[in-house]
Amino acid sequence: MKNTACKHFTRTLAAICAAAALVPAAFAGPTVAPYFETWAYGSSQNPNSLMTARNQGGVTAATLAFGIAGNGCSLGGGIEAVLAGSAKTDVANFRAAGGKVILSFGGASGTYLEAACSDDGMVNIIDNLLRSTGSRAIDFDVEGGQSGNAGLDGRRNRVIQRLQTAYPELYVSFTLAATPGGLESNGLRIVRSAKAAGVKVSIVNLMTMDYYDGNNSQSMGAKAIAAANSLFGQLKGIYPELSDSQIWAMQGNTPMIGVNDDQSEVFRQSDASQLATFAQQKGLGLLAYWALQRDMPGGNDYNNFSLVNTKPYEFYQLLSQSSPPPSGIQDGTYVITSAYSGKCVDVAGASTANGAQVQQYQCNGTGAQRFTLTNMGGGWYRLINPNAGKAVDIAAASTADGAKVQIYTDNGTNAQRFSFTQGNDPTTWVVRNQASSKCLDVADWSTNDAGKIQQWSCSGGQNQLWRLTKQ
């Protein structure tokens, strides 16, 4: 995969410069965590921040590319941007809004930390990133010539073991080159050595791209699925103690959307839909793609654009269709954000009093912005703010447009029951009150902190669309 020196994924040295379980997002199914080019921070690329991707495209998880060695045993590759300044703030805001962040190390070029550092040096670099960002998820993208260096496996495995001792919940994935036949020999060696060393591997993520096999009679979606089916058998051989469902959940799949480095290979929208359906049916743990910045229409350079998008974030939305189960939203605690303003649903002043206004506010990760959803039957949900211990409620059980949305002692009435219907954008939901049949709405299309949440006749407007991220 690419880093600051390259503009695309690759699996061969010749093409290098020509690349803990995550808490699931709002739905059952794979976490969809496309790669975000960290060198886009401060640039004119779109998106140039995680919050832009969240607000424009509903992105709730991302893989930050890449961390490699800078000058000696130091951090380079682009990911170092998140240690300070606006990029650090962006990651904090994204996580406060419920977003999930995977820190990815390696890629197609540059010197890996495993080659440049001692065990202590590498542990310190990664630990500093974990502490600075708050993330508890790391990925090792091992490819090209360095994937063939078995001598690096030992250091990598020792470092991961030390980090998993310090952070028992730490998610660890390996992103590895693939063919329709599954992992290549180097990838198999890397996974086997990790297991033998006692590393707890969360995900084995296939790079389903750049096959250079000359077989264009098979679609890229079909090849990605063939690779996943082959990986299933390979992982069963390495982890015979795991059930079939556990093996599927251990899989990730990462295509290069649109035109690949082998430009005869094109991963199209139909391929994304095919892969999303397969991932939902089998219960894959992760879907990703290269890269968020390429998930845009226009352009004439496949390094920067997919060259097949018809609208922004099209592949994110298609792959996200793997996530919602037919039964709707799962019970659990969520952060809820307005698809219009990007701000979080919030209890004003973190109040615990009856009648406190429900509003929107800059996402800050506090208890005032957490809501526990429970299906009370028939698809009608109760929303409890755990900080107050009180329910989201339509004041006085009103059926009028503009009625106040507040918190109130849980009383079991229909004024405190809400349905969730998927919006036209599959990352969004329309929230309708049972008593009034009216929708939760950002009053006056406000984008300001303290903008009031009210009920209003359902219109399908952007100010009535909401995104949920499970905590």
TrEMBL record:
Record PANTHER family: BIFUNCTIONAL CHITINASE/LYSOZYME-RELATED (PTHR42976), GH18 DOMAIN-CONTAINING PROTEIN-RELATED (PTHR42976:SF1)
SMART domains: RICIN (SM00458)
PROSITE patterns: GH18_2, RICIN_B_LECTIN
Annotated GH18 domain residues: 30-318
Pfam families to which the protein is assigned, alphabetical: RicinB_lectin_2
Keyword Signal tagged: yes
Coiled coil: none
Annotated protein name in UniProt: GH18 domain-containing protein
Lineage: Bacteria, Pseudomonadati, Pseudomonadota, Betaproteobacteria, Burkholderiales
Signal peptide start and end residues: 1-28
Keywords: Signal
Alphabetical list of InterPro entries matching this protein: GH (IPR017853), GH18_Chitinase (IPR052750), Glyco_hydro18_cat (IPR001223), Ricin_B-like_lectins (IPR035992), Ricin_B_lectin (IPR000772)
GO biological process: carbohydrate metabolic process
